[in-house]
Structure formats: structure tokens, C-alpha cells
Amino acid sequence: MKDPDPVALFLPSIKGGGTERSFVQLANSLAEKGYKIHFLVGNLAGNIFELNSKIKLINFASESLIYILYRLITYLILYKPYSITTALDVPNILVYFAKTLSRFKGKVILCQRSILFADLENRIRIKRLFIKSMLPKVFMKVDYVISNNYYAANQIRSNYVSIGEKIHVIRNFVDFDNIQINSKKELFLPNKFNSKKPTILSVGSLTTIKDRSTLIKSFYYVCKLIPSNLVILGEGPERLKCESLVNKLDINGDVYLLGLIKNPYPWISKANLIVSSSLSEGCPNNIIESILLRKPIVATDCPGDTSRILLKYKPSLLVPIGDPFEMSQAILKLLSEYKFTNKNFKYNLYDLNLELKKYEKLICPGPYEN
User: Fold this and answer.
1) How far apart are CA 46 and CA 86, in angstroms?
2) Which residues are registered as beta bridge partners of 10?
3) Which of 14, 43, 314, 367 has the most CB within a 10 Å radius?
């Protein structure tokens, strides 16, 4: 009997972030269903996620894009997977080149998880131009483009009309049972953390697109009326900028930048309020998970699916992008009083099994029985 062809997933790293968490969850879920999964990683350093023991992990152990491309080409030639799936702008382009240079005949699936070109502002001009010029060509040459949100999918359809039929929307799926179990695990509080004060929580990277400056400034206004804690779970290049702003506003004793945490759910469970300050979002994992744990939410009305998700969920408030005062007023309102009226919220839209089946149809050859 012929050994089944593997299903390959590739990311530069899995050290944190919504995309990485979702890809690991996808790999683990497919492995549990009996598929032969290969997880390819550019560099495993800093990994905080656990892969299922049934998965073959292939670590390229490099941050060099040229070397990673070489290893991708070699992998496709040697293993000949049924499909290879990746996400994010640069990995999408790398996999396209690897497919072309290796003459790979299997399926290639790219995931456009964020708003189109949303992450380019921090790149140097030549890289921005290269990515903007390459992505349309890449989308044209692959089998499918998966978006986890309708906003980005519609962007691609309107900008690149000829590839409309390749686009599929598959939402981030949520393992409800796992989140409930993990939310009840013991929470270790930082030193001098005052549990008697309300806790405002934000989950996500310390990057420009998450606009942590607006969040911290809004918290400064909140503290003047309601003494509170601000906890931010996530890491990124703007840590020093965040710490400097916290020092400048003299709110050091109330703000906790805790970095990447393997299990954020006890913090979500403990929090009195969840805040998202993003300039744009795809399908925001932290908001969906906070909804599941019945938390009041303040979020920016930014490009993406945030407003669509929160439309029928109360208590939640949308505020303008980059407006610390309006954000502070929304936070104060929900800290003071709120009630749940979200009877019509469709939790099943993010059900693991329903969304997983959509992935199976696109990237898997069929279940493999051990």
C-alpha cells in the first residue's frame, strides 16, 4: 500500500502571533484526523506553541531568505507533498518561487490573513515595491488563496478580478472546549499586581499595526477616574516605544507588558474588559476568544472583520482609530456598567469542525487511516 502524500504547512517561525497560533492549531487538528502532516519552519527559536507528536517537524534553522528558499525547493523535490500551504506576504512569495524553481506539481495554497498590504508601512521602500509588484503574480499562479476575513477577500477580488474564483473565506476556527479548560488554569500574577483594581487586557503584538500608543494613552485617561491595571500580552519591535510612553505618562505601576504567553486564557477570564486598538485586523482571534469567555470588548472600527464580528455581540463598543480620548470614554462606560444581550451571536460560525472541513477540501488528499 502506497504511503499517503504529506500535507505541508510552512511559516518562517512559530514563536508567537495570531497567524502562527492558527497554523499550529490547523496542523494539530489535521494530524488528529489522521493526515500525514509536515510542518516546515524557517527558524524554531523562541517557539511557544506545541505541535502534535504525530507531525513531522522540519526546522530549516535559518533566518536567511535565500537559504530558506533553497530548503523549500529541496523539500518539494524530495518529499513531493500533496499540497503546501503558507501565510503572510514574504512566505507567500517564497513558496511561489520554490514551486516555480522545483517544478512542483502539487497544490499551492496561500493565506492572505491581514488586510492587503497592511503590514508594509514598516518595510523599506524597495521591499514595499517588490512585495506589491509580486503578490498579484503570485496570486495568479497558485491553486487557491484563503482569507480568514471577508474584508481582505473582497479587496483581492476587487483589485485582481481575474483570480476571484480562487479565493475562499475560511474563518479562524476556535476550539471552544480547549479554551474553556485552559481559561480555568492557575494564573500567576506579576509582583505588586493589585487584584482589587479592574483589569483591562489587550492581546497581540507590540507593532505599529496594533497601535499600542493609543491604547496606553487611553489608559492614562481611564486611570484618572477609575484606578485600573493594563495588561498587554504580546511581543514585538515597539516594546521600547511602549515602555518609554508608559514612563513618560508615569503609569509604570499600573501597566504590565508581559510578552508572549503560552496560555493567555486565564488572563482573558480574569480581565474585566478586553481592548483592541488595531489600525486594521483580519479575523481577530483575541476578540473571538474573548466573546467565547463572555467579556465586554472595546475595539477600533478599523478595516477588517472586527465590526462585522461585534455587530451582534453586546457588551461591545467600537471607537475611531487612533483616538485615545474616545477609547477611554468607551472603556470607562463598560467598566462602569454593562449587560449581556448577545443572544443572537452565532458562535457556530467559528466552530473548529465546520471550518476544518473547508480546509480539508482544499489542502488534503483525503483522510489517511493509520
Assistant:
1) 19
2) 40, 86
3) 14
Distance CA 102, CA 326 (A): 53
239 DSSP assignment: H
177-347 folds as Rossmann fold (3.40.50)
Cα separations in angstroms, 31 against 52, 133, 277: 7, 36, 35
| Grid cell digits, residue 282 | 483580519
pTM, rounded to two decimals = 0.85
Please identify which residue in the block is written with the cell numbers 488595531: 278
Cβ atoms of 264 and 233 closer than 8 Å: yes
Cell 489608559 -> residue: 219
Residues of the chain with CATH 3.40.50.2000: 7-173+351-363, 177-347
* DSSP annotation string for 259-314: E--S--HHHHHH-SEEEE--S--SS-HHHHHHHHTT--EEEE--SSSHHHHHTT-S
Please give the grid coordinates belonging to residue 366: 483525503
Could you read off the pLDDT of 28-69 as tens digits, one per residue? 999 999 999 999 999 987 776 789 999 999 999 999 999 999
- pLDDT value of residue 368: 42
**Any idea which of 52-61, 70-79, 116-125, 213-222 has the lowest mean pLDDT?**
116-125
Between CA 325 and CA 364 the distance in angstroms is: 48
7-173+351-363: CATH topology is Rossmann fold (3.40.50)
pLDDT digits (tens, 9 = 90+) for 301-352: 999 889 988 987 888 999 999 999 999 999 999 998 866 555 555 556 667 7
Q: Residue type for 156, please?
A: I
Nearest to 272 by CA among 315, 215, 321, 214: 315
Q: How confident is the model at residue 370 (pLDDT cuts 50, 70, 90)?
A: very low
Partnered with residue 318 across adjacent β-strands are 299
* C-alpha to C-alpha distance for 170 and 168, rounded to whole angstroms: 6
- Helices of type H across 142-173: 150-159
